[in-house]
Design brief:
This protein is of the alpha+beta class. The chain is built from nine helices and 21 strands. Helix 4 runs antiparallel to helix 5 (56-68) and helix 5 (56-68) packs antiparallel against helix 6 (72-85).
Length: 398
Amino acid sequence: MIPLLLLLAPAHAQEAPDDGAYDYHINQARLFIKKGWTADALRELEAAQAANAEGFQAFWLAAQLHYDQMDASAAWEAAERAAEVGEGDERSSAAQFRDFLKSTYGELTIEGPYEAAASILQLEPSGPILDPELKRWIDKVALTLRTRTLLPVTVTVPAGEYTVNGQPVSVVAGKERDVALGRDDLGAKGMAKLLVPRVEIGTGVGVMFSDRVPNLQPSIETQLGFTQPFGRMIFGAMIDYSLRSYQVDDGTAFNPRALGGGLRFGTELMVGGPLAFRPSIGYRFALVPGIPLACDDPDLDGAYSCGVPGDASSDASVYAVGRAHIPFGEVAIDWRRAGRTTATGFGVRAAVEQAFGSIPESSEATVIDSDDTITFTATDTAWTATGIRLLAELSLTL
């Protein structure tokens, strides 16, 4: 009869708690938590729960770890179980934590237009988030979705109004909500719909170099730009100013006429995390002071004839203001909080450019350290130079 009685006995009577195994798994979980091995700690806590289904610490620690992993749903389930098995202050703490989670967070399921759809997802709150802890939570969840994500996917976020790839959804605390994305909301097409006009302010260093203009020094560059998206493409315009200095016979000179402006055309590529990667090509026109000329006055009448500097002696050196057509290629990398398309961005812009310049055939030059002027005629007006520019940039949405 004993085997029959055992079969008819309640399950918990056959599975008495194994306190030794429970304590071992709890201790291992605590060790893994200290080392930051969250996945291993959760596995040890699951083993502890299997060894003792009434153990408070196994559920309480699991609730804390799930919360750190931004899984409020799993956290409140573990906290609820901890409140059921705990006693006294333990039960009170677990119940308060459970109530906080259920009154603050809700589940959001993002569904695709077809089975196994995948896309980078853009989760953004529709209004400002004042609580820094909730803002941190939203940012972390948004970053996890900025990698290519298989749909459907469920996340837990603070209750509030959101958009997912531009589609609005209201998340209610303690409830489940879903948002369905269409085909036009996925991939590059979906991200292109979210791009907004931006103003970009940059400053950095630029240099031009070639055998024809060896005297040009690195300059401080400033740039004010405007970017307007058109579908997947981005069109931009910019105004440049350079604090251009250059070597002269007696030292260093500065000319404030280094202005420029131009256009760029590119796209914003899909990358994970908070980075926006924008390659582009463009053209700008710029005034480049400091183009050296060696001049002679053959008739001693003050009318100088100037050409490319060489080894031969000359009566004077002239530094003309060149006009340059400058095609360029560049890459801009912006860091935006949680990868948001509408957020303020901080980043860098690197450009490689080729200047095709000229100087006036005839003009006047001011003598350094005096108010005297001379007239000159240039016999070789063309010049070229390769340029590199590196700017730190702030971008603002309009």
